[in-house]
Amino acid sequence: MSDHPTHLRIHQFAGLKPGPRLLVSAAVHGNEIAGVGAIERVMAMLDSGALTLRKGTLTFIPIVNPLAHRLQRREGERNLNRNLRVNPIPQDFEDRIANKFCPWLAASDVLLDLHSFNNPGPAFAMLGPRDNDGDLEPFRHQAAESALALAVGTDRIVEGWLSTYALGLKRRAEKAADGSRKMALQQDPHYGVGTTEYMRSQGGYCITLECGQHADPRGPEVAFQAILRTLVLLGMVAPGCVEPADPTRPVELLQLYEVVDREHADDRFEREWASFDAIAEGERIGTRADGTPVLAPFGGRIVFPNSRSEPGHEWFYLAKPSDRVLS
């Protein structure tokens, strides 16, 4: 038996009437499994006739990274959700998966990518840039993507991933490389590109749905309802199979503006942070190994704090209220 999985499992339901091409993916990070069971549950409904596909093409990839999933950890040999692209000369398992996965993304119109996170916290959606003609992430589907982010039902939506990540990449590029492939990947300008960024580069639109903390028992239900709500939004299944998200609910919209790397193994947080804990301007978030304080430049929230991050990797993100209007 091979030490590594030798195939990627893909399921497709082709409606007899033309319509959107939706791809739903999970376990891009192997220990983020909320979406795996949710996908299996929706497929069972389609197979039994409890749910009817009215039009379009629905593709499910329940375990995008089977090696990381088998190992019950985030990565197999590297982070699949960074440097995602077709690799003519694959160097590792994730490169080989990307070579199979990227064409499925390119062949789709819409992506719902299901994830979870380390620290306790509520589910939230991440959407892409506003319509623009810039060099970093040109985009033309702001309205459709905003509608998708609202439809899945979370009370918090976050924007600004790639522009914020680019700031961190610029800082990393200024540091001396050690010649390793790992360092080369971290300093690659393409490093911030994952599933949704690749999808947008191919002309589609998408959201990342963070279904809560990895072990949160509510995560699979969040993922399940999001899949059904997406299908209803796109007209691919009839309304009534799921309770729609309350359109009048208050939604907190945040914009990422900073990513801070851990520089040394002795860098430490001031306290145990959870995603979206409130922070005040000037509040001490942590302390560097040499005693230098790490302070919040603005009031807002901390996102994805990771006390176990390796030096040279993201330690935490900062977000502030966004002026974007979702309708």
TrEMBL record:
Transmembrane segments: none
Cofactor dependence: Zn(2+)
Residue span, Succinylglutamate desuccinylase/Aspartoacylase catalytic domain: 18-116
UniProt keyword terms in alphabetical order: Hydrolase, Metal-binding, Zinc
Short name of one Pfam family: AstE_AspA_cat
Stored InterPro entries: AstE_AspA_cat, N-alpha-Ac-DABA_deacetylase
Sample GO molecular function, one term: hydrolase activity, acting on ester bonds
Cross-referenced PANTHER family: BLL3975 PROTEIN
Protein name from the UniProt record: Succinylglutamate desuccinylase
Organism: Roseateles aquatilis
Lineage: Bacteria, Pseudomonadati, Pseudomonadota, Betaproteobacteria, Burkholderiales
